Amino acid sequence: MKLFTFLAISLLAVPAAAQDKPAAAKPVAQEAAKAAAEPKKQAAAGPRKPRRWHEDARHCLERPTNTEIIKCAEEYL
Fold it and tell me: Which of 22, 30, 43, 57 maximizes the CB count within 10 A of its CB?
């Protein structure tokens, strides 16, 4: 019975000891600078096109070549 208790406690203690320690809190100034930089990246990329995946792209199949069909259909992905 003592052996069983020892094994149970050791099996529960090993994962608890192996957990990472919580990271130290970042200074507020670094977080503010990082948050301020992200909107600039989005603005530089330009406005996003609305997704059209829910629309019907079967009209692309009427194009004469496979390349034109693929280019037309990529807009709906």
Answer: 57
The structure tokens listed for 31 are 């977080």
Instruction: Locate 63 and state its tokens.
Output: 């194009």
For the residues of the chain, what is the DSSP string, one character each? Answer: -HHHHHHHHHHHHHHHHHSPPPPPPPPHHHHHHHHHHHHHHHHHH-PPPPP-TTS--GGGGGSSSHHHHHHHHHTT-
Backbone angles phi, psi at 75, to 5 degrees: -65, -20
Work out the pLDDT band at 65, boundaries 50, 70, 90: very high
**Amino acid residing at 67:** T
